[in-house]
Design brief:
CATH superfamily of the largest domain in chain A: GAF domain
Number of domains of chain A: 3
Strand order of the largest sheet of chain A: 7-3-10-9-8
Oligomer: homodimer
CATH class of the largest domain in chain A: Alpha Beta
Distance between the termini of chain A: 58 Å
Helix content of chain A: 40-55%
Structural class of chain A: alpha+beta
CATH topology of the largest domain in chain A: Beta-Lactamase
Radius of gyration of chain A: 26 Å
Shape of chain A: elongated
Strand content of chain A: 15-25%
Largest interface: A-B, 46 and 48 residues
Order of helices and strands of chain A: HHHEEHHHEEEEHHHEHHEEEH
Chain lengths: 343, 343
Amino acid sequence: MDKLTDRKKRLLEAVVDSYITSAEPISSAAIQQGYMPDVSTATIRSELAGLEEMGYLVKPHISAGRVPSSKAYRFYVDSLMQNVTVQDILTLEEEGKARIDGVESIVKEAVKVVSDVTNYTSLMVLEGVDDLIVRQVKLVGLGDNTALVIIITDGGVLKDSVITLPEGTDEGYLESACSLINGSMAGRSIRSITGGDIISGVEEFKALFDQIINLLKQYVSGGEVYVEGADKIFAYPEYRDVENVKGFLSVISQKDKLQELTSGDGVEITVKIGAEEGVKNMAVVSAKYSVSGRQIGHVGVIGPERMDYKKVIKVLTTLGKLSEEKKEDGNGKEKAGRKGSDV
Amino acid sequence: MDKLTDRKKRLLEAVVDSYITSAEPISSAAIQQGYMPDVSTATIRSELAGLEEMGYLVKPHISAGRVPSSKAYRFYVDSLMQNVTVQDILTLEEEGKARIDGVESIVKEAVKVVSDVTNYTSLMVLEGVDDLIVRQVKLVGLGDNTALVIIITDGGVLKDSVITLPEGTDEGYLESACSLINGSMAGRSIRSITGGDIISGVEEFKALFDQIINLLKQYVSGGEVYVEGADKIFAYPEYRDVENVKGFLSVISQKDKLQELTSGDGVEITVKIGAEEGVKNMAVVSAKYSVSGRQIGHVGVIGPERMDYKKVIKVLTTLGKLSEEKKEDGNGKEKAGRKGSDV
DNA sequence: ATTAGCAGTCAAGGGGCGCGAGTGCTAACA
DNA sequence: TGTTAGCACTCGCGCCCCTTGACTGCTAAT
């Protein structure tokens, strides 16, 4: 009685499936009608009792139908994951026409699309980018002993930052500093630069080096987060209860929490379900997200535990594949040759 | 009976004041106790009846105390605004030590401080920046017929963008394009550049010009929005009701709505209260926000209609003054000379 | 192993009731 | 004329009780 028989599995899927659409406790009769017309409700009941004992199902109260536990959802998505393949490519055209505008706007568009297509609140968590290769560092004097640092990497330009220079420096100083910096940083990854083994040979530039390395460190910690469609949550009846909304809002306002939730170590798709995974009465599905073949973060969806996992996983998988394909593809619309690898 | 007598005014303020802290209907007895021990509750009642008739007060039901209407709040803040002066500078030290990191992180810090100090959800709406002066435009070739455009203005660097070049261009092309572009754009405001009167004299560079102007246009539409402390809202009992939370969440997820709500034309402090102003059961207080003497957007606070306007207005005013003072000050903490500094 | 039938359980919804907070009105008073 | 005390009235709220109906678990027969 400890093992999931085949029928129990089908039953379990039936319960989860129904509950995902109805959001109300599922009775034995309902299952019989919708899924297993050839066995009696009594049989179903006894099977359900078994599943309940195993912790897959829960009864809100003794005379109510069954509701899936987190464990049930877990089972459900796990069995779902087994046949995840790149199926019919969903109409994510929008993402296809990836704009010229640099990472930020692509990301914004993507997160919007995900939210619209799935009808859940969607997330984009950009992560620290410590494996970017620094291509070039530029210093632009701004007068008043300040200069703008522009760090160009193979993944785009790190955002603007101003540093201060020692008293009384001139353009010449900037130029020599610049070439010195490029000499020791260009071509290396951010990780290795911030690793600490880089020292300006020249005492005069030490402070400058330190400032730039600090900037880089800051970027590494990264963690921009975009949330789209937060109000979509009210489409789901569980959010008539303020407590749940509270939990939801609290999660999506904590950037670090989101970061943690969406980061599956290396896995393509991560699914976190329920309180044990830090999201009471909620679920978070997330996938790696890449632009131009480089992984820059994770896209995700957050919603009720009875999320439409099928749909969500499909959408995220598709998006993931799309964004990865670009690697081969250059960033042009035509894919002739590899004449134009990444940006 | 159509005019607000002096006593009525005091009474009105008393009601709003109490309600702001208690969130419960105010009875005549409560007012007598806390504000006017020298008149009887009966008198107060008859006065309140008058105020109610004038539309300042509302009774949830016939045997309940009074609750302020939006009109009452409006009166309240208006009378408040008359004695807004720079009072005791609040401990906004955090803002003082404005970091080196450029606008973005200053803004993030500011919005966080506002939320923490006021204990409301705070907003920062960055606006289109069409009066920035373009200082310099740089083109950095990236190979593969693409180039990075870096537009340096007196307000910082506009974000990274990649453009495509005509086939078969080389460094020389970039260089001459660059100087041509700078020749016609440097020193001018974004508004005037996008105004449309700039044309590349040379046919060869026309496409390039157009792309850059398009980029600028995009920036002008601007509208970055930061929201901090969204979950603080649950500290206030009106948000036990899901409907209100719904309204709240819906407002803070609409960037354009936030933009509209916080933009008071030229006014230092804007206060929008209630449904007539687009925020049912809520209020939004906002102020201009400047960095280094340049106005870059608006900070604001959103919360229940019975917001602690005194506190909020004080905080925002102070922050506004602080950020404007920098204009005079250079951008350093010590104001000796203009020797530079910042950090 | 499955089924029909039956008794048991309990959430949800509705009506009735008493309490108490707070009002409006009226008549008396300064 | 403005203020006050007193009183009757109103109505939301919480409480209890009841009924209904949707389920289940159990048992005995197939």
